[in-house]
């Protein structure tokens, strides 16, 4: 039986408001979800993912401020994150990084707070969950000189970028985008990533894979990502699910 670890989900999103509890219980019992890493994007959502992890044994938490909200970050933000990090089911800092696609926050401020999140993670001895969109050079300029562990979530970079972050010891995580027909570069990345350095994620409710693209995403759809990776790598879905689960457990320490 396949067992799954969804390494990046947002079940605190309002799109799960009406059926969250029913869905999570169903995922655990019927969907073979052994672990779900719920990811915060600001202080309030970071509190909420912790509350969810208190309620469900198979849910764990990542806390931090998304680059979209970097303009709102100050010293007090990090004081709160330090306090929240003492919870036993907080396993990483994030999601943090740079997003130049939407530019919701000033780019220099994004870079400053990304670096600060990395320093916080190092201080707390936690891995980081990195969001990088249309900002590869600046992301690498900040990441490479520092000694952190973590994962590039929803990886969307080139083969060369993947090699660079893998050589630094970061994992790469594949979402539903790897199933998209035009994801040529990403499919090439999926073919060569070492078997002990990749994770899988839904980023739900976003990025539903083919054949349910455009719908609300849930962890039930991990099977489509696993099937695509198995096809690309010449492997079995069972082994892809097993490897990704083992890799995520190793990274997050669960």
Characterization of the model:
The chain has 254 residues and is an alpha/beta fold. The chain has one domain (4-252): TIM Barrel. It is 41% helix and 17% strand. The protein is built from 9 helices and 8 strands. The chain has helices at residues 20-29, 43-55, 75-84, 107-124, 136-143, 159-167, 184-192, 222-233, 237-252; strands at residues 4-9, 33-39, 59-63, 90-99, 128-133, 150-152, 171-174, 198-200. An 8-stranded parallel beta sheet has the order 1-2-3-4-5-6-7-8. Helix 7 (184-192) links the parallel strand 7 and strand 8 (198-200). Helix 2 (43-55) runs parallel beside helix 3 and helix 8 crosses helix 9. The longest helix is centred in the middle third of the chain and has 18 residues, at 107-124. The radius of gyration is 17 Å and the shape is globular. The mean pLDDT is 98.
Runs in which pLDDT lies below 50 for 5 or more consecutive residues are none
CATH homologous superfamily (4th level) name: Metal-dependent hydrolases
Rounded mean pLDDT is: 98
- CATH topology type: TIM Barrel
**What global shape is seen?**
globular
Tags for this entry?
254 residues, alpha/beta, TIM Barrel, 8-stranded parallel beta sheet, 41% helix, globular
